[in-house]
Design a protein that fits this description.
With 1276 residues, this protein is α/β, with parallel strands linked by helices. Among the domains are: 8-218; 239-395, Butyryl-CoA Dehydrogenase, subunit A, domain 3; 718-872, 3-Layer(aba) Sandwich (Rossmann fold), CATH 3.40.50.300; 874-936 and 985-1019, Dynein motor, AAA1 domain, small subdomain (Helicase, Ruva Protein, domain 3), CATH 1.10.8; 1073-1232, P-loop containing nucleotide triphosphate hydrolases (Rossmann fold, 3-Layer(aba) Sandwich); 1235-1275, no CATH class. It is 58% helix and 10% strand. The chain has 52 helices and 24 strands. The protein has a 5-stranded parallel β-sheet with strand order 10-11-14-9-15, sandwiched between helices. Helix 34 (875-885) packs parallel to helix 37. It is elongated, with a radius of gyration of 45 Å. The protein starts with a helix and ends with a helix. The relative contact order is 0.04. One of its GO terms (biological process) is microtubule-based movement. One of its GO terms (molecular function) is dynein intermediate chain binding. Residues 954-979 are annotated as: Disordered.
Length: 1276
């Protein structure tokens, strides 16, 4: 072996060299044909990798052998760098292509999966895992093209998966796949067993990802709309009607309350569908949504018409169920019987079906046509009842003041208040409710009456043939009484249908007695005797009116007796209603003045002593007002009690000023004119007046006036002034001389309130009617007939608007009635020989605006009307009375300050703005100040003691609350300077300044507001600026602001502080005013302000009541454009060709709002969005007044419910009448309240890119302000 070693070494060297050559060749082959060669497909690359890995294994084994042999011969092993490098690369390629092979396996299986079965989440997770492994591969691999290819493949999957997820969402429908095909220019089958993922992966979704995202986004919006529509469809497919038993339970009627709820739901659903139909994504659902919108519209129309027919049918059923009516009107009775049968059959089918959709939609004949036909037939029956209705009006003439349909509704339920209560305001001045107590024998009495009625009908049927009398089967009781049950059924049917179904319990009704009446503010008066609610409504209402007047008269008599023993007026005020307490105060004043005048010859200080004695009578009132409770009762004063005390305090001021004036006129005897010209009450009672009833007697000059005894409830008398007193004197003299009165003056002089105040002072019932250019003369004649028969007063406001036909009718009635009264007749003939009964207390007062160019009093009317011209009222005197009535300190100084502010602002501000500073506006400020003043509980004891000390001073002192400015000397003026005010007075005056800013400030533009604030600082100089808001007020404002900001954020609005202040001002004004003007230029934020307020109040109500279980107070906004129609009759209603009244758009919303207020706790906001001018706004003048009623062309008066607000949204106040401006609150939206910044910010918030928002915001800030300034101010 040793000898041959050399040979072996040579052979080894040859083998090594040969192996080196093979390795180099292997390397060259690897470089040229290996898996890393560019362009090799992944599958080929994997195969080559396996081949080279096998070859490498062989080479590696051979190298190990060679290395071992070399070591055996003591030779250093040869290094093979190409083989090592190839081995390393093969390891790396193994990693790469292992991942590549894993990807290929996933790709092949994923492409073959059905779209319906794919799990995108797990697949996405697997691809993300591959991606992470790919990123973790060595950096050397990442430079290879194969790695880059594999990375691009995996990245493509990562990019396509979000698109696949969107396409896999539930909102994608076949129509959306068709859109995808159209976008990508491809086509594939959509069947679940054929549609595979490879179809999507092969159409290059990434290249069309923007279009596909839009398709998916549209699909999402479409799904939202579809869900809403399916919800609406499901709700109204399953919605059912509810019925209630009528009478004895044999008949059913639609439930009014439930149906009203359905109509509200319908309104919401229709609004939702309308919004859906305006969306650009509604395309695929447009026809279906439109079809449902038509269905819901038809359901709404049917239900509304159904309720109208049902109410009409109930009213007429109450009339025609009376056998006497059947005999008097046989043909109309037969017509009603047919309608009755058809209606009952329709209701029976609906009761069996109940489903709303099936009952209201479809059928051979549309249900709406059937109902309209029934309504027309019922109208024909109704028109035949004029004689029936007029007979009831003769019994109770106040029925002349309501329309025929309202009267029919009132007559329909004689044993309950359900039909009478909504119309008490039209029948009585101060009555809003009646307290009833059940009669213990009520059921028995009712049953006996029904039995007698049935027996009488049976007897008449047996005695009289029915050849000419058509009676339906259920009315012919004598032919169907075959069992005891039939008799009971006949008796129950003859029970008056005026009783609601809830009053029936197995043919039982409950009869009641009226025991007390209640006014609007809660003033209650117990009747001297009970009034039995039996017979017709006209009978017990007439009896109620008579007993109520007797009760008022007895209260006057008792008050006079108490006044003889009581030393303080608060004792009388606590016991009697306001009007009685005022008479008691007048009696005390007359007594003290008569005693003082009688002693004036022997005592120089007789009148001052009389003033002092009278003043002591009033001395307790301010303490009670500040304390907030009666002296002997530990209970807070009610709203009615507050108003009563304020009225007494104001009236007492006026009476005290009269005595002051008498003292300066050197009065010597009670027969002097200066004394007798005043209204006096000696406590005299006339047991039988001109109408045969007892009356208290008032004295004026030589005239003795009978007190009318009408119950005025919580209505307060007018604040008297010397001007008002002279007007009263003239009008009363005209009344005693058989003349009517005409009050003429400029707008804002108090014409209407003067007329109402005179009626209030004399206790007369009055009917106020606002004249319109299109009012119907026939309805005016009907009202005048009622005035004459009732013997009450008629106040025709805005008489200059009355058309010639109406003026002619008024002249005819006034002439006829006045001439008959002059000769002592008790009846007269009007309207072509129609005889009516008249009463001597009949009187007409008309008011007219003197600045109206088209008004001239007809010459013939001048003989029957005494004209009184009103001038501007004494503002300081009236404000002083109101301030004193509210319990404010130093009312004279405060009233002078208010007057000074008004005069300075009227002189310095524009003519339109000057109208804001009217007397009525300042009175509203004083009332708001009084409410805030009463709500403050801090330092009350100090205020009470200070006010008490003021009242204990001499009445002529300026520190007294009741000092007249007319007779104040120079020395007293110095004492009344602001520096001489008490601390309590300074606090009140400081609050007055803030309330002025709160109530008047929102009405002004930014420029005028600066002047106004400057005037306030000058007039209210030297007063502490103290907050008047309580903790509760602050908490309420903060809660409201937080909800407002949340609403603004959710609806894309930017809540600037200036804009939020305006919304908050509007909220505060709406709490105390039912009429509000929101004025400002276009784009100033008026609409968003009103909408945000209503929506925020609705949310606030949910927050406050949602968790308590109480009924949520809803808020609804209705927008109306009065100028959207060419004829205002379409907006405010008109008389039809046959004399029927046709409601307009606004009156329909009005009635609906009043109905919602009665049925639910709902505040309705009627927003009139149009330029404010007299053409249409004057129709609402009486609505904005204290009367709160709208006079229609048919002379019907629509009263406004307490929870209804009227908002005027306008950009022009130039043509607004002073009456509108003075009777409404106002919020003025300046241009800088909104500006461009909120609009730009809201637009920028919709941009998705933060960088884009930042850049655009910077550009806006640098350019828009200079540009807008240049356009608005510098350019011409």
């Amino acid at each position: 072996m040793i000898e041959k070693r050399h040979i072996f070494e040579q052979e080894l060297d040859k083998d090594v060299k040969r192996f080196v050559v093979e390795v180099i060749q292997f390397r060259n082959s690897f470089d040229s044909q290996g898996p890393g060669v560019p362009g090799v497909l992944p599958a080929d690359a994997v195969e080559r990798l396996h081949n080279f890995q096998n070859a490498y294994s062989e080479y590696e084994a051979k190298r190990k052998i060679l290395d071992a042999v070399q070591l055996l011969f003591g030779v250093t092993p040869t290094h093979y760098p190409e083989l090592d490098r190839t081995g390393e690369e093969l390891v790396l390629l193994g990693l790469l292509y292992g991942l590549f092979q894993q990807y290929i396996s996933f790709d092949q299986s994923f492409r073959e999966k059905l779209w319906a079965d794919v799990d995108l989440i797990s697949a996405n997770r697997e691809v993300e895992s591959d991606w992470q492994q790919c990123l973790r591969l060595p950096e050397r691999i990442q430079e290879w093209q194969a790695y880059k290819d594999m990375k691009s493949y995996i990245k493509e999957y990562l990019d396509v998966f979000p698109i696949l997820h969107k396409l896999a969402s539930k909102e994608i429908r076949n129509r959306h796949w068709l859109q995808v095909m159209s976008v990508t220019g491809s086509s594939f089958q959509l069947e679940a067993n054929v549609f595979k993922l490879k179809y999507l992966l092969d159409i290059e979704l990434i290249n069309h990802q923007d279009e596909i995202k839009d398709i998916c986004s549209s699909a999402s919006r479409e799904l939202e709309l579809e869900v809403k529509m399916r919800s609406t469809e499901e709700e109204w497919t399953e919605q059912v009607l509810q019925f209630e038993k009528f009478k004895d339970g044999a008949m059913y009627c639609l439930s009014n309350q439930h149906t009203e709820g359905l109509l509200e739901l319908l309104e919401d659903a229709q609004s939702s569908l309308a919004m859906m139909l305006t969306s650009k994504y509604i395309g695929p659902l447009q026809h279906e949504a439109a079809a449902w919108a038509m269905k819901l519209k038809e359901i709404s129309e049917v239900l509304e018409q159904w309720l109208a027919v049902q109410d009409f049918w109930r009213y007429l059923e109450a009339v025609f169920s009376n056998p006497i009516t059947a005999k008097e009107l046989p043909h109309e009775f037969a017509r009603f019987a047919r309608v009755d049968k058809s209606y009952m059959k329709m209701t029976k089918r609906a009761h069996d079906t109940k489903n709303v959709l099936q009952c209201c939609v479809g059928g051979d004949v549309p249900k709406i046509q059937v109902l309209k036909h029934l309504y027309e037939e019922l109208e024909i029956c109704f028109k035949s009842l004029q004689a029936y209705l007029n007979a009831r009006r003769k019994v109770f003439p106040r029925f002349y003041f309501v329309s025929d349909l309202v009267l029919l509704a009132i007559l329909s339920q004689p044993y309950t208040l359900d039909s009478v209560k909504p119309h008490l305001k039209s029948l009585f001045v101060g009555l809003t409710d009646i307290t009833l107590t059940p009669r213990p024998d009520g059921v028995k009495s009712a049953w006996n009456m029904a039995v007698l009625n049935v027996k009488k009908t049976i007897k008449e049927d047996e005695e009289q043939p029915t050849s000419n009398l058509i009676i339906p089967p259920y009315r012919k009781v004598s032919q169907n009484l075959q069992s005891e049950h039939d008799l009971s059924r006949a008796i129950s049917r003859n029970l008056s249908t005026c009783v609601s179904s809830s009053s029936y319990n197995e043919w039982r009704i409950v009869l009641s007695d009226a025991v007390a009446v209640t006014s609007e503010k809660g003033e209650t008066l117990e009747l001297k005797k009970e009034v039995f609610l039996h017979g017709g409504v006209e009978l017990w209402l007439s009896e109620l009116s008579r007993v109520l007047q007797e009760t008022v008269h007895d209260a006057v008599v008792n008050c006079v007796e108490d006044a003889k023993t009581f030393n303080y007026i608060d004792e009388i005020a606590q016991k009697y209603p306001p009007q009685i307490a005022c008479l008691g105060l007048l009696y005390m004043w007359t007594r003290e003045c008569e005693a003082g005048i009688a002693d004036i010859r022997i005592d120089r200080k007789a009148l001052p002593n009389a003033i002092r004695r009278f003043w002591s009578i009033l001395s307790r009132l301010p303490n009670i007002l500040i304390k907030g409770s009666w002296r002997n009762i530990d209970q807070n004063l009610t709203v009615a009690s507050h108003a009563k005390l304020e009225a007494l305090l104001s009236y007492g001021m006026y009476l005290r000023d009269i005595v002051d004036d008498l003292g300066k006129r050197k009065l010597r005897d009670v027969t002097d004119f200066e004394w007798k010209r005043n209204m006096r009450f000696y406590g005299n009672i006339c047991e039988e007046g001109r109408d045969g009833k007892p009356h208290a007697l008032l004295h004026l000059l030589e005239n003795v006036l009978e007190y009318g005894n009408e119950f005025y409830g919580s209505r307060m008398p007018i604040i008297l002034t010397p001007l008002t007193e002279r007007c009263f004197l003239t009008l009363i003299k005209a009344t005693t001389e058989f003349q009517c009165g005409a009050i003429v003056g400029e707008s804002g002089t108090g014409k209407t309130e003067t007329a109402k105040g005179l009626a209030h002072m004399l206790g007369q019932y009055f009917v106020s009617l606002s004249c319109t250019p299109k009012m119907d003369f026939g309805q005016v004649a009907k009202i005048l007939t009622g005035l004459a028969q009732e013997g009450c007063w008629g106040i025709l406001d805005e008489f200059h608007h009355a058309p010639p036909a109406v003026v002619s009718v008024i002249f005819h009635y006034v002439q006829t009635v006045i001439d008959a009264l002059k000769v002592g007749q008790t009846s007269c003939y009007v309207n072509e020989g129609k005889e009516i009964v008249i009463k001597p207390t009949f009187n007409i007062l008309v008011t007219a605006t003197s600045d109206s160019q088209d008004f001239t009093m007809v010459t013939e009317l001048k003989a029957y009307f005494r004209t009184v011209t009103m001038v501007m009222p004494d503002m300081p005197l009236i404000l002083r009375a109101h301030c004193a009535g509210q319990g404010l300190k130093s009312p004279k100084v405060l009233a002078d300050r208010f007057t000074m502010v008004a005069k300075i602002c009227q002189a310095q501000l524009s003519s339109t703005t000057a109208k804001i500073f009217s007397l009525s506006s300042l009175i509203s400020v004083v009332k708001t100040l009084g409410a805030i003043h009463r709500s403050q509980n801090t330092n009350n004891q100090n205020k009470i003691s200070m006010m008490t000390s003021d009242f204990q001073m001499r009445p002529t002192s300026n520190t007294s609350m009741l000092r007249s400015s007319k007779f104040t000397g120079d020395k007293e003026k110095k004492a009344a300077s602001p520096s001489g005010l008490t601390t309590a007075a300074k606090l009140d005056h400081s609050c007055a300044m803030q309330v002025l800013q709160q109530c008047i400030g929102p009405r002004l533009s930014q420029e005028d507001l600066g002047i106004f604030n400057s005037v306030l600082r000058d007039v209210f100089n030297g007063l502490p600026r103290l907050p008047y808001a309580t903790d509760q007020h602050i908490m309420n404002d903060r809660s409201f602001e937080s909800l407002l900001m949340k609403y603004a954020s959710e609806n894309g609005l930017v809540a600037r502080p200036q804009w939020m202040d305006k919304v908050l001002q509007l909220y505060h004004l709406s709490e105390n005013n039912h009429g509000i003007i929101v004025a400002g230029g276009p784009g100033s934020g008026k609409t968003s302000c009103i909408t945000s307020l209503v929506e925020t109040l609705a949310r606030w109500s949910l927050v406050k009541h949602g968790n308590t279980g109480a009924q949520v107070h809803a808020h609804k906004l209705h927008r109306i454009n009065p100028l959207a129609v060419s004829d205002l009759s379409l907006m405010f209603g008109q008389l039809g060709p046959n004399g029927d009244w046709l409601d307009g758009i606004f009156t329909s919303y009005w009635r609906k709002a009043n109905k919602e207020h009665n049925v639910h706790r709902t505040t309705t906001w009627l927003c009139l969005d149009a330029p404010l001018h007299q053409g249409w706004a004057e129709n609402l003048s009486s609505v904005l007044d204290n009367g709160k009623y709208l006079t229609l062309e048919n002379c019907e008066r629509l009263h406004l419910a307490d929870d209804v607000r009227i908002v005027f949204e306008t950009d022009d106040l130039e043509n607004a009448s002073p009456a509108i401006l003075s009777r409404t609150a106002m919020v003025f939206m300046d241009d800088d309240v909104l500006g461009w910044q909120p609009l730009a910010e809201a637009w920028l918030n919709e941009r998705s890119s933060a960088m884009e928002r930042k850049c655009l915001q910077k550009a806006f800030n640098n350019t828009l302000d200079p540009m807008s300034h240049f356009v608005l101010h510098d350019s011409k």
